[in-house]
Amino acid sequence: MVAATQNLRRLEAQRNELNSKVRLLREELSLLQEPGSYVGEVVKVLVKVHPEGKYVVDIDKTIDITKLNANDRVALRNDSYTLHLVLPSKVDPLVSLMKLEKVPDSTYDMIGGCDKQIKEIKEVVMATNRIDILDSALLRPGRIDRKIEFPNPNEDARLDILRIHSRRMNLTRGIDLRKIAAQMNDASGAETKSVCTEAGMFALRERRVHVTQDDFEMAVAKVMKKDNEKNMSLKKLWK
Q1: Are 50 and 38 a contacting pair, CB within 8 Å?
Q2: What is the mean pLDDT of the chain?
Q3: How far apart are CA 182 and CA 188, in angstroms?
């Protein structure tokens, strides 16, 4: 008898749970079957629907007509055009507080101007490696007070750059960096650095741990896009 009572209670609990799920499914189904809506604004007794036009519409019984104002955003059912929902305003109320309601009658000169800020302006430095393509308006007197040219490094400077960027490389004995610098006529500092990088890459491609004079000379030919004085073949250069 006790077991039968327990089974009955268990079945009743399952029935109640299933009934609850059925109710939820019915509610979801009714929401899915509800027709879509149009969005419009209340204009006196009309509703203006973008971009279709203006309509005289019915108001759903759930809407309090006394709370409707001109330019309110509302939703209309797409099957009957019944106004059934009042939408929130598109304008953030915090933004309206930031609007300027009155033009100020004071100017910068009246409150001290910008003399202090002008005195605190720092020097502006501009750099370019293509001065030939700059707009002539930028180069007029008064725009740039002082022009300083940094030309490409000479042979001694290129030698110093090669020594700096090759100091941590495993170089074989007898490498003549001055000869490499002499081959790089009119090369920039960046191109000089690239020669060291490319020389190391040539050694890595041949699975060597030391960089040779030939590696540097092939790197010069690759970076400067011309053959070196040994007239190496392109096949050897791009191996």
Answers
A1: no
A2: 75
A3: 13
Domains of the chain: 37-87 (2.40.50.140), 155-237 (1.10.8.60)
CA distances from 67 to 62, 87, 181 (A): 12, 12, 86
Other residues' Cβ atoms within 10 Å of the Cβ of residue 82: 18
Instruction: Give me the sheet containing 37-43, strands edge to edge.
Output: 53-55, 46-49, 37-43, 73-77, 83-87
> Cα separation of 48 and 62, whole Å?
21
Distance CA 216, CA 213 (A): 5
**124-145 residue pLDDT tens:** 777 777 777 878 887 777 777 7
pLDDT, tens digit, 9 for 90 and up, residues 80-114: 778 888 877 665 544 454 455 555 666 656 655 56
Confidence (pTM): 0.41
Joined tokens for residue 204: 């890595």
160 is written with which tokens? 């110093």
